[in-house]
Amino acid sequence: MDRYIAQELALPFLFGVGAFSSILVSVGALFDLIRKITESGLEVSLAMQIFVLKMPEFVVLAFPMSTLLATMMTYSRFSSDSELTALRGCGVSVRRIIAPALVLSMLITGLTFVFNEVITPAANYRAKVMLDQAFNSEKPPFRERNIMYQEYQQAEDGSGKELGRLFYARRFNGEEMQGLTILDFSQTGLEQVVSAESATWNFVDNVWTFFNGTIYAISPDGSFGHIVTFDRQDLNLPRTPLDLAARGKDDNEMNIAETRQHLNQIVRKSGDDRNIRVWELRLYQRYALPFVCIVFGIVGSAVGIRPQRTGKATSFGISVVIIFGYYLISFIADALGKVGTLHPMAAAWLAPILGLVVGSLLVLQASK
Q1: How confident is the model at residue 274 (pLDDT cuts 50, 70, 90)?
Q2: What pLDDT sits at residue 309?
Q3: Residues 115-133: pLDDT tens digits?
Q4: Are the C-beta atoms of residues 223 and 243 closer than 8 Å to each other?
């Protein structure tokens, strides 16, 4: 029985992967590449390579949808052909009947995790590099202009966070920052402005070495003022601006380890609560996304196993409605997580947990 059900699940799943991937990749990549070919002169052969590299990003999104479609179509056909009635008449429980679908969902969950960790980030990064090279816009591995770093601190009255330090550099050549201005409000009762021609990071002493500059120190009420000019001055400031200047990857080009490293080494040090929430949310979503396959597997099996007579087109339509409802909840939870209404972990796992609860209730109802 398990072998038979697994074989029946395989073909609808492969059909779903092909159908949903084609739709997603057409909207997300194909139309943009066609526009670049016709308007910007991108070579067709290179566009095809980039298209292939972008495919894993959309295939991994199609895995959960295909799991839902496969379970719904398979168990709906079993119900329409009275095969479920025969199995239950032999004493086979509903939970035992949907067990192969649950095993399939777990396998697809593992495959989704592998794609998200190993294949998709590397493919997306390679596609971006190839596109930059095609238009002769390949950039150096660092930001060349306008490096800005904001560091927040707790307000004196305890009402929240406020700007503690602002670091700005006009240019960066990979080793030296030029045209620097630093506003420092971290000391109570004293505000400092540092202006310098250039600065480098001292890896031995872990300090910034500024050259040819001026330090302005004033009190907010104007009762104190001091100006110091220097040829060389070491200042104990964080090296985070140097990390920001390194041209990093986008969030869809990072795996879990890279996302966590970026969050802990750069984002958290800024003290920007909203930016920290966004990156925490992205980190937790990387764990939550693969488990959507299990949710859709249970929901699809529970809906399909109910006594009904539906065709493949109807199953496809119901799948689209369920997918739309699920991702609508995910988008709402994502927005609530960004504004701080929900904790990032709760926002990332809200839709999967809610879907798992609904699917379990449907299975219990079908078992009665």
Answers
A1: confident
A2: 58
A3: 999 899 989 888 888 887 7
A4: no
For residue 247, the SS3 value is: coil
Residue 182 host element (H or E) = strand 177-184
Cα–Cα distances in angstroms (integers) from residue 256 to residues 52, 191, 329, in the given order: 23, 39, 23
Alpha-carbon span 115 to 124, nearest angstrom: 12
Contact 123, 53 (CB under 8 A): yes
Tokens linked to 167 = 């670091």
Vertex 97, ends 91 and 101: CA angle to 5°? 170
Q: What is the pLDDT of residues 236-264, one digit of tens each?
A: 888 778 777 765 677 788 889 888 888 88
Amino acid at 346: A
Q: How many CB atoms lie within 10 A of CB 77?
A: 19
Q: What is the DSSP string of 186-225?
A: -STT-EEEEEEEEEEEETTTTEEEEEEEEEEEE-TTSS-E
